[in-house]
């Protein structure tokens, strides 16, 4: 049985052997904590992080601010934190795209996602949602696959870019169902979603928060989610496993990481605070309304998830022969 978050913190503090480390942990935080979102303001990761920062500010009695540093598909902001002081005052929001997929599709990154970062806590998971243009004559995944087999390379699926989670979810489906479709990469899911609504695309995979309002409003038809369980945001939509394709397990996750070398007791304090905040009914209600699920984890649990996701997406990238543009 795992100790409660507050007990974990006490144990970590008592485990201090270096006076300087103990002093840092006991006084932490005594200035603003910066959470870098390595993407522009207004996207799903930004929208999920801001309420977290606000609740952490209230919980820790100290300002926690969001710092948007977009550019190079998240690489610029992530690198900024990798090179920041390991004192607990600079954190980065990592996602499956940046920390589990990116290292496999980019020939060279200025940081190592394992060596240069310390896991803090998971805080949100979001299914990849398979949605289609409403006029497409399919109402479930099996009908979509049958249509794709009857019309090889005539269905276009969009994504937020080559090597993105939506792109690789589509590649997973192509492989699992032995179908051929044409991938159309966009610079973000916004324009891809607009083209899907307009009928320029036939289908997409996307983080559920990106599409949930269009599905609820009848502008798109949802076929399945890529998580093992159905989403509370769209409980009527089956999983890919229920649809006959358990191999297609695709979801995004948002988590906090700190620079490597950040004192263990500080990591434990932050992790415990995130778990407490994300268990608050207000945060659970907010994330569900956005089409995602509130989460929280120990640093060890996040490290395990990161490694599993890294290895899973490595296999998908290699099988599909994906290289970032």
Q: Your description of this structure?
A:
It is a single chain. The chain is α/β, with parallel strands linked by helices. The protein has helices at residues 5-14, 19-27, 44-60, 75-82, 96-105, 141-150, 165-177, 189-198, 208-216, 264-278, 281-289, 299-320; strands spanning 33-37, 64-68, 90-95, 117-132, 156-159, 182-185, 203-207, 221-225, 251-259, 293-294. Strands 1, 2, 3, 4, 5, 6, 7, 8, 9 and 10 form a ten-stranded mixed beta sheet that branches. Helix 7 links the parallel strand 5 (156-159) and strand 6. Helix 1 runs antiparallel to helix 10, helix 3 (44-60) crosses helix 10 and helix 7 (165-177) crosses helix 12 (299-320). Residues 1-5 and 7-15 have low confidence and may be disordered.
Structural topology:
Elements: H1 5-14, H2 19-27, E1 33-37, H3 44-60, E2 64-68, H4 75-82, E3 90-95, H5 96-105, E4 117-132, H6 141-150, E5 156-159, H7 165-177, E6 182-185, H8 189-198, E7 203-207, H9 208-216, E8 221-225, E9 251-259, H10 264-278, H11 281-289, E10 293-294, H12 299-320
Helix pairs in contact: 1-10, 2-10, 3-10, 5-12, 7-12
Brief overview, please?
The protein has 325 residues and is an alpha/beta fold. The chain has helices at 5-14, 19-27, 44-60, 75-82, 96-105, 141-150, 165-177, 189-198, 208-216, 264-278, 281-289, 299-320; strands at residues 33-37, 64-68, 90-95, 117-132, 156-159, 182-185, 203-207, 221-225, 251-259, 293-294. It is built from 12 helices and 10 strands.
**Arithmetic mean pLDDT:** 92
Termini separation comes to 46 Å
Strand content: 15-25%
Number of domains: 2
Tell me the Rg in angstroms. Answer: 20 Å
In the CATH hierarchy, the architecture of the largest domain is 3-Layer(aba) Sandwich
> CATH top level of the largest domain?
Alpha Beta
Fourth-level CATH superfamily of the largest domain: Bordetella uptake gene, domain 1
What CATH calls the topology of the largest domain is D-Maltodextrin-Binding Protein, domain 2
Helix content: 40-55%
The main sheet comes to:
10 strands, mixed
Q: In terms of per-residue confidence, which ranges show pLDDT below 50 for 5 or more consecutive residues?
A: 1-5, 7-15
What's the multimeric state?
single chain
Order of helices and strands: HHEHEHEHEHEHEHEHEEHHEH
Count of runs of 4 or more consecutive helical residues = 12
Q: Which descriptor suits the 3D outline?
A: globular
Structural class: alpha/beta
Number of strands: 10
């Amino acid at each position: 049985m795992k100790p409660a978050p507050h007990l974990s913190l006490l144990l970590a503090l008592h485990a201090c052997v270096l006076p300087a480390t103990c002093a840092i942990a006991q006084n932490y935080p005594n200035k603003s904590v910066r959470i870098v979102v390595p993407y522009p303001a207004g996207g799903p990761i930004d929208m999920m992080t801001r309420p977290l920062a606000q609740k952490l500010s209230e919980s820790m009695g100290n300002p926690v601010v969001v710092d948007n540093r977009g550019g190079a598909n998240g690489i610029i902001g992530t690198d900024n934190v990798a090179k920041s002081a390991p004192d607990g005052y600079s954190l980065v929001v990592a996602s499956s795209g940046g920390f589990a997929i990116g290292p496999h599709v980019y020939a060279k990154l200025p940081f190592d996602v394992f060596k240069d970062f310390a896991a803090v806590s998971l805080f949100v998971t979001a299914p990849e949602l398979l949605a289609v243009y409403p006029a497409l004559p399919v109402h479930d995944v099996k009908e979509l696959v049958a249509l794709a087999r009857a019309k090889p390379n005539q269905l276009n699926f969009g994504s937020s870019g080559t090597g993105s989670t939506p792109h690789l979810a589509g590649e997973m489906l192509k492989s699992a169902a032995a179908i051929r479709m044409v991938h159309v990469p966009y610079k973000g899911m916004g324009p891809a979603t607009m083209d899907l609504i307009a009928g320029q695309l036939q289908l997409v995979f996307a983080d559920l928060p990106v599409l949930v309002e269009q599905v609820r409003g009848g502008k798109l038809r949802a076929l399945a989610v890529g998580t093992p369980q159905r989403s509370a945001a769209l409980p009527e939509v089956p999983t890919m496993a229920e649809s006959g394709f358990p191999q297609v397990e695709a979801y995004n996750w948002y988590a906090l990481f700190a620079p490597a070398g950040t004192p263990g007791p500080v990591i434990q304090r932050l992790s415990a605070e995130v778990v407490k905040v994300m268990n608050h009914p207000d945060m659970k209600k907010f994330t569900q309304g956005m089409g995602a699920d509130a989460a929280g984890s120990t640093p060890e649990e996040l490290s395990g998830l990161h490694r599993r996701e890294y290895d899973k997406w490595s296999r998908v990238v290699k099988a599909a022969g994906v290289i970032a543009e």
